[in-house]
Amino acid sequence: MEKEAELRSLEKHCPHKNLKLVKMTGFSAGRSSLELALYFVENSPALELLILDHRLDRSVWRITFGGDLDAKCSKGYEHTISKYVSNAIPRRVRLSYS
Predict the structure, then answer these.
(1) What are the angstrom distances between the C-alpha of 11 and each of 39, 43, 79?
(2) Which of 5, 45, 51, 98 has the greatest number of C-beta atoms within 10 Å?
(3) pLDDT digits (tens, 9 = 90+) for 37-58
């Protein structure tokens, strides 16, 4: 069984004190996407809505990576959000993902 890596945490400060909405398009179940989402949650005290959208521009995906976009993006997506993101979000922040 593979050991689970811990997520990195950037220094906590509030550079985004007026940020109310974050939409991450192309969000993946990868470590860097999770860390970035959590960074915004921790450093945006006015945040009201976090949107995590795993969809990407299909033409860019085919040219860059090839293969089936939906199969690659949806693998583990909901599990990752529920495990790492949902529990870290304060009640004041609404979470939306597709």
Answers:
(1) 9, 9, 26
(2) 51
(3) 999 998 999 999 999 988 765 5
Selection from 90, 85, 92 nearest residue 29 by Cα: 85
Check residue 65 and give its pLDDT: 57
C-alpha 30/C-alpha 12 separation (Å) is: 21
Which pair of structure tokens corresponds to residue 30? 């990868």
pLDDT digits (tens, 9 = 90+) for 62-71: 555 555 555 5
pTM for the structure as a whole: 0.72
CA distance 13 to 87: 20
Cβ–Cβ < 8 Å for 21, 52:
no
Q: 3-state class of 50 per DSSP?
A: strand
Distance from C-alpha of 50 to C-alpha of 70, rounded to nearest angstrom: 22
**Residue 49, H or E segment:** strand 49-53
> In the 8-state DSSP scheme, what is residue 68?
-
